Amino acid sequence: MRAIAIAAALVLASAAQAAEPRPAPAAGAPASTAPLHAWELDAFVGYGQLAFPGLDSNTAWSNGGAAFALTVAYRGPHFTHPFLDISYVPIVSSGRPAYVTGSPTPTWSDSSSYALGFVLGPGWDVDWFRIRAGIGLYLVSATSEVAGVSSSASQATLGFLLSASALLWKPEPFALGIEARLAPFQSPTSGIYQASWEVGLTGRWDFVRHR
Fold first, then answer.
1. What is the C-alpha to C-alpha distance for residues 165 and 194, in angstroms, rounded to an integer?
2. What are φ and ψ of residue 7, in 5° steps?
């Protein structure tokens, strides 16, 4: 909770800095047409899967899945901005042979896991390039099925978000580009850390603009 409180303080400091008024232009200088303040809504869609740790050698197949995120951010005259990110993070789907007590032949085990993230933090814009780093809560869920018997586990745990994006096309008030994301967090049943990577398309819409 201390880490989340620190992150919240960073976001509030970033918002306060973003809200500082820009000095008025000198007499006779042309007025800027760029907005000083903007609320934006971001959407991310892509593909993601487990980055760490690796799967054991008995795994017969594995893959990731579709990744989604929605983000609300506030941009002021400074290049820093606070954001709130809500995401669906695929971790891994896999299958492997499994042995059941009392059965002379192996059966099959299928498992899948994903996480729902609620992250806040600061972001930085430099021209068309953007970096964000945040901390928050992830609800990590895992499901497995062995010989037709299913079991599941879920756990809320501390997690992080690191993202980098390039906004390559900007038909204002929109922008479109590519984004890479890394989400480290804990597994639902043990203390080891996991991390999932995601890559895909990102879009931005400035739904409120004002000076």
1. 22
2. -65, -40
One-letter amino acid for residue 16 of the chain: A
d(CA 7, CA 121): 6
CA atoms within 13 A on the CB side of 118: 6
Structure tokens that stand for 88 in this block = 């669906």
Residue type, 130: R
Q: How far apart are CA 10 and CA 24, in angstroms?
A: 28
Residue 14 DSSP SS3: helix
pLDDT tens digits, 134-180: 999 999 999 988 877 888 989 899 999 999 999 999 998 999 999 99
CATH class of 2-18+37-210: mainly beta
Q: Is the pTM of this model over 0.90?
A: no
Neighbouring residues of 109: CB distance < 8 A, sequence distance ≥ 6: 95, 96, 97, 98, 144, 145, 146
Residues 74-113: b if buried by 16+ CB within 10 A, e if exposed: bbbbeebbbbbbebbbbbbbbbbebeeeeeeeeeebebbb
* One-letter identity of residue 198: E
